[in-house]
Amino acid sequence: MLEPNLTLHIWILQCVVIFISLLIIWVIFLSLRSRFHLREIPMPPGHFIFGHLFDILDKENQLIKFTKYAVKYDGIFKIYVPPTKASVILTDPELIKILTTTQLDKPKDYLFLKNWFGHGLLTVPVKHWKRQRNMLTPHFNRFSQMAHFVKIFENYGDELVAHLEGTSDGNIEMLPLMKWFAINSFCEIAFSQSKVFHEAYNHKYFESVEMLQKICVDRSTSMKRFDFWYKFTETFRQEWKALDTVNKLFEEIVEKKLEEQNENNANVEEYENFLDMLLKLRKENGLTIEHIRHEINTFLFAGHDTTSNGLAFTLYALSKNPKIQDKIFEEQSNILGDKVKVTYSDLQQMKYLESVVNESLRMYPPIPLIGRKVTKSMNLAGKYHLEKNQNVGIFIYGCHHNPKYFPEPEKFIPERFLNGNAANSLMTFSYGPRTCIARKFAMLEMKSCILKMVRKFHILPPKPDENIHLYGSVVLRTLNPVRISLKKRI
């Protein structure tokens, strides 16, 4: 008869063997499922256990690798990251248009932004989305307000170039400056509050926004995607610390607005701004402060981070292309003459400038990947059967760097948007009903700022010159800073 201790050891060993056996069976099942699921859609080679996880985490090469897959597999392929099912990746513009026109739901990974954006427009369930979209759209696209927007862009643009004129640094890191310009412009337009960020180019808010994006990506590629597990991690505590900073900014903005409304001598605004509208709905329709916070957090992020990225990358591209700068300067000279201040009408006439911005947004799409969830089984273009709840990634960067849709995709060629049909394949602002609500606003802001810079400076490469190394996060990021140097025009 075996001794009790030996019996216990054998029992523990048997349990370990059973657990390991079940784990191996589970891993084999997941791997085989990824290969047989969506059989008609090709899948690039991946690790037997970890699928394409290492490709995603390889910041140095992730965009290059997946763009090569997009070209090789003609605009549609699938990738697998355990334990989820394989996801479909689209880069074909026509397939993207079909999907984004008919499928409006977001995948589960968007829920990793829920604590930040809640029921804001980006993450709200689709059953509530349309009502919110209709309510918010006029505040960033009304023609009568565009002239007012341009005045604000002009004022902050003047401050920006005055700051740059006073710097003695030959190599200027552009992203912090562009964030300052974009977020202050947005705050004045959306909240009628000027200089919210004063001279703080590295405000804690920006650090917290960066942290929240990193956490979202981290959760989507690890076991932290499971809420139960996630709540016991250090990342969970980091998220709430970052959220505390973000929410304090919201509280400051709303508190200041409420104080202004309570003052008897409050100035009458030229138009009802975004925050005024939300606070009005609070009184009339019972909109909660929490809901207002969700919308403010959503638009405050979207209103500065993507635009500031686009501006920094455009200036970087111009530093490599002096002849394109000359064309912008020539166009503005023909339209403005000796005028100092630029109007909305002036910007609308600058078609070459607009083509430059479009080309920059093609090469450096601020959001490299967006997602959709199939809510009802469908046949995509009559070829690919997608089941209900299938996750689909729309790889905008891969679409924009595919020579099938944009010849010589690694060259900066604004003329492609003046001649031909390049604009039909541009997916920067998505497509369909859920296209970016503030795309006109963003284009106007970028044109205004870039024009201000080109009128004042020759934009030159940094010394020593260096190429930027891109990788995909929630927004497009670089492993090294985006730097330029400037020479004042005579």
Automatic annotation (TrEMBL):
GO terms for molecular function: heme binding; iron ion binding; monooxygenase activity; oxidoreductase activity, acting on paired donors, with incorporation or reduction of molecular oxygen. It holds the Pfam family p450. SUPFAM superfamilies: Cytochrome P450. PROSITE patterns: CYTOCHROME_P450 (PS00086). Heme binds at residue 436. Its cofactor is heme. Belongs to the cytochrome P450 family. This is Cytochrome P450.
